[in-house]
Amino acid sequence: MIRFAHIIYLYGLIVIPVILLLYLLMRIWKKRALKTFGDSIILNKLFPDVSSSKMTWKMILFSLAFAMVVIGIADPQVGTKLEEVKRSGIDIIIAIDVSNSMKCEDIKPNRLERAKQSVSRLIDKLQNDRIGLIVFAGKAYVQLPLTTDFAAAKLLLSTVDCDLIPTQGTAIGNAIDLAQKSFVEKEKKYKCLILITDGENHEDDAIEAAKEATKEGIIIHTVGMGTPDGGPIPVYQGGVRVGFRKDNEGHTVVTKLDESMMRQLAAAGNGTFVRASNSDDALNVIMKEINSMEKKKYGEKEYSQYEDRFQIFFAAAFVLLLIEFLMSERKNKWLSRINLFGEK
What we know:
Layout lengths: L1 E3 L10 H21 L4 H7 L5 H22 L2 E14 L1 E7 L13 H15 L4 E7 L3 E8 L2 H9 L13 H11 L8 E7 L8 H10 L2 E7 L6 E2 L1 E4 L2 E5 L9 E2 L3 H10 L4 E3 L5 H11 L4 E13 L1 H17 L6 H4 L8
Parallel strand pairs: 3-4, 3-6, 6-7, 7-12
Antiparallel strand pairs: 1-2, 2-13, 4-5, 8-11, 9-10
Helix pairs in contact: 1-3, 3-10, 4-5, 6-7, 7-8
């Protein structure tokens, strides 16, 4: 296991392409400047010992040495000791609806972005639990398997968008079935599924899927995105809204929160229904339910001891700089005597 104690210093590596670009521009400028003094063949005869290739090699060595120094300052560390860390928590899978209706702006900025904000804050409140992400529209897909890596969860959460799944629709039952398969443990407890959707199910029997999941000990909480009055579904092109989605008869499609469906799903899943708002009230209700669940004890292998390895990179930088300093810019006299092609 390798990590950096001061990873921010690695941004210094950005300087290397700049150095190489400046060197290349200098070589081009120098070549053009020399042409003003005379023909290149004549100039080569006037300065027979000058080696352009050695100058290039000196720049490469300097750039490598600079890279070694930057990496050394970032302090690479190698994990040397593994320990089993005891934790207690539950497995949480969050299923997010990414159908087109989630673009509706009856909740600001829109249903999907509001859902992502709520999930992000929920992740910040988790401690020893494992979390997974599922996205669904006409079909459901695992975005992130169960993990304790909350940073990875937030990173993948930021990529969730309505364009992820080409098959449109709202297959809530499919999402519940996939979540049921994604819980890897056999115990019929310690499992929680949070469904975040507007409840407009058009594809399957979600209630029946919720009842089947409950038999496996999965608690299903539902978060309703949207309002009962609903709103139109905006259509964007190039980041600019150009209108609203229309049906086959040319009427503007209005999407509404199906609160009745959401309540039935929560009841079938022995969970709680909350309607999302512009405050954290819904989030706090769900977190209270999660914290009241019985926790499972489990162990994970983690590196508990690291050793610094910056010395290796500083030593490499010193050797490279020494070679660069000792390397002459003149041609090697012995090599220059070799004439493979018999040139005069």
